[in-house]
Write a structure and sequence with these properties.
This protein has helices at 69-77, 96-106, 118-124, 136-152, 169-182, 197-211, 220-224, 229-241, 269-273, 294-303, 316-324, 347-362, 368-374, 377-383; strands at residues 4-15, 20-29, 32-37, 43-48, 53-56, 58-60, 80-84, 111-113, 115-117, 156-160, 185-189, 215-217, 246-250, 256-259, 280-282, 308-311, 329-330, 399-402, 426-431, 434-438, 441-442, 450-451. By secondary structure, the protein is α/β, with parallel strands linked by helices. The protein has 2 domains: 58-257 and 309-386, Metal-dependent hydrolases (TIM Barrel); 258-308, no CATH class. The strands form 4 sheets. Strands 1, 2, 3, 4, 5, 18, 19, 20 and 21 form a 9-stranded mixed sheet that branches. Strands 9-10-11-12-13-17 form a 6-stranded parallel sheet, sandwiched between helices. Strands 6-7-8-22 form a 4-stranded parallel sheet. The radius of gyration is 21 Å and the shape is globular. The two termini are 36 Å apart. The chain binds zinc ion. Zinc ion (ZN) is lined by residues 87-88, 160, 189, 218-219.
Length: 460
């Protein structure tokens, strides 16, 4: 008879809150961390972590995994144990209650949280024209649906304003006010990027100022990494100094991925970004992996609008300047790689290892505990996840064990190589105490929970 289900021995345990490390062993029982100690522990399963970092499982605050099993596999293989889905205005597919019920019954490889998305709410009240504002009746309908989603357990509200350019200030503020009333986080993919991005950031800051909602600005580098990251960060500083409840997540690539038929690629986008058609790479569909010509770009826009395209724009140094700022959380924007859609974007398979390789090992911009905080305790705090993002007795046993000297991404852009290559240096990933990935090899388990948001962000 053993005291524990699993023991992780002699690892270097990171405390992201105190920003320190200690060599210790962990005892795991019933999905929880039951002991953190220097004593010898016995268990049925023993994982040796000598010389390795033992970190809380990574929490990715900006994803589009939404129950896609392949996509979850890439996430688990890079250490992600919890994803915050439903971003950029897009709710989980189908009726939310059905989606929640399904993953509660069936389980999933990793933990999922879901948001209600503004664009999906528009569609649910019959508004499919992305260039049209909602009427008063439609806005009232969206508010009723949003309240219902919160009652069911949607964790927050997301906007993808760039995808619905016609959305009015009235409808956006009315929905944000509803989220504020329920004490829910509002994630905002701002209305435009490129040189007009700063005005869009002002709009997002005004949303929290006018409604009192807690706001998180999504994938900052994809919106402002065009030479304006410094100004955007200064605006953020001012907003926080003013006392506004605003935060930011950002990724480790300059090139974003989205549907080629979306408003992001409307006329004028290349002028806005200062690039040509050959800076747009097809990530799925008949031209996947290819830099597009003028003709191919317009052909896909017309005939295959749901194909994913990657825009190779932005300035690499701004990736790291954004992530260096205190409080910025790491995010992948993953959701492009699933069955039939591969290659997709390397962010799905490479974000977290690339962050540690670059920010900690190669550029020495963040200490290891600080880097761990950006993908564990900070997002856990922002999402009100009290039992995640820490290694303490009683916390959920979502854990990643990695080698700080070897952790690296191998995924590449589709025009350069294999987008889905698994990272190196990640030994073990546990979700709720169960081994989900062992040296990159996925286990056929479903320990992940669908977490319903109850109460307010601050009082769960
Ligand atoms: Zn987005």
């Amino acid at each position: 008879m053993h005291d524990f289900d699993t023991v992780i021995t002699n690892g270097t345990v990171v405390d992201p809150e105190k920003k320190c490390v200690t060599v210790a062993s962990l005892g795991i029982r019933d999905g929880k961390i039951a002991a953190v100690t220097r004593e010898r522990l016995s268990a049925r399963h023993v994982l040796d972590a000598a010389g390795k970092i033992v970190s809380p499982g990574f929490i990715d605050i900006h994803t589009h995994v939404e129950g896609k099993a392949d996509c979850a596999g890439y996430m688990a293989a890079m250490g992600v144990t919890t994803v915050y889905n439903g971003n950029c205005g897009i709710s989980p597919p189908g009726a939310m209650e059905d989606f929640f019920g399904r993953y509660e019954r069936e389980g999933f490889l990793i933990n999922q949280l879901e948001q209600a998305g503004h664009t999906s709410l528009r569609e649910a009240v019959g508004l499919t024209d992305r260039y049209a504002p909602a009427s008063q009746v439609q806005t009232a309908g969206m508010i009723a649906l949003l309240e219902k989603a919160f009652d069911i357990g949607a964790w927050g509200l997301s906007f993808g304003l760039e995808y619905v350019p016609g959305s009015s200030a009235e409808e956006v503020l009315a929905l944000a006010r509803t989220a504020a009333r329920y004490g829910k986080l509002v994630s905002i993919h701002t209305r435009t990027d490129g040189y007009r991005g700063l005005a869009a950031l002002k709009e997002a800051i005004d949303i929290t100022r006018l409604t009192g909602a807690a706001v998180n600005i999504s994938h900052f580098v994809y919106q402002y990494g065009f030479g304006m990251a410094v100004q955007a960060l200064a605006m953020l500083d001012d907003a926080q100094r003013e006392g506004l409840d605003i935060s930011v997540d950002s990724g480790v690539y300059t090139s974003f991925a989205t549907s080629i038929g979306s408003a992001v690629f409307d006329d004028g986008c290349l002028q806005k970004w200062g690039c040509g058609y050959d800076s747009i790479v097809a990530a799925t569909g008949k031209y996947r992996g290819k830099r597009l010509t003028d003709e191919e770009f317009h052909e896909l826009r017309a005939d295959a609008p749901d194909d994913t395209a990657i825009a190779l724009i932005g300035k690499e140094h701004e990736i790291w300047e954004i992530l260096e700022r205190p409080g910025v959380m790491l995010s992948s924007d993953a959701g492009t790689m699933y069955e039939g859609a591969i290659p997709g974007h390397p962010q799905d398979a490479g974000t977290f290892p690339r962050f540690f390789r670059t920010m900690v090992r190669e550029q020495n911009r963040l200490s290891l505990p600080e880097a761990v905080a950006r993908c564990t305790s900070l997002p856990a705090g922002r999402l009100g996840l009290k039992n995640k993002g820490k290694i303490k007795e009683g916390a959920d046993a979502d854990i990643v064990v990695f080698d700080p000297d070897r952790i690296r991404d191998n995924a590449q852009l589709p025009c350069d190589g294999d987008t889905s290559a698994r990272p190196d240096g990640i030994d073990y990933v546990l979700v709720g105490g169960e081994l989900a990935a062992d040296h990159g090899e996925l286990k056929p388990v479903k320990p992940g929970k669908l977490l319903r948001g109850r109460g307010t962000l601050w009082n769960r």
